[in-house]
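ok trying again, last paste got cut off:
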Amino acid sequence: MSFLPDDYKVPAGTNNYMKFEQGENVFRVLSDAVTGWEWWTTEMREGKEYRKPNRVAEEGAIPVEEYDEEQPPKHFWAFVVWNYTDKRVQILEITQRTIQHSVRALEKSKGWGDPKGFDISVTKTGDKLETKYSVMPIPPIPLDKEIEKRYAAMTIDLEKLFVGEDPFKDDTVNVDEVAEAIEKGKK
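nice, full thing came through this time. structure:
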């Protein structure tokens, strides 16, 4: 007998934000995007330094005195996605221009259109300044009804990103309870 079962896997995190991991990252866009500018500042709380994101919808509203010139504000897109790896609804924030240009090209193309209609695969390779991203659309299939139910049961307000609040905070539905009810309904 071993300490942990042979088929044990560490559970996926409960992070509400999707981050690109090395290799393939597949997701389905569930909402329209909000766009703006983001920069990070450091603040002291209880004697410890914390990094804090700051966001505004328009470039002209960025207070120049607030950000580090070595890390200027980045243009971002934020939208709700289904993360197939973590099997959960999350917010994906994209600041990488290569990804933004590729997704925008898919949206504008007659063959693909609205990214909510198909899955997207973003493959991340390399590290730090050598990081590269490639974007590939996955042929359209209808969104799984269980994913639709989970998303429909949630309240996510992306506009809260601009005022430093949690977009999930007013979500009165316990996502884990919804997932459990869905699983019970399958049996």
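cool. The longest strand covers residues 34-45. The mean pLDDT is 88.
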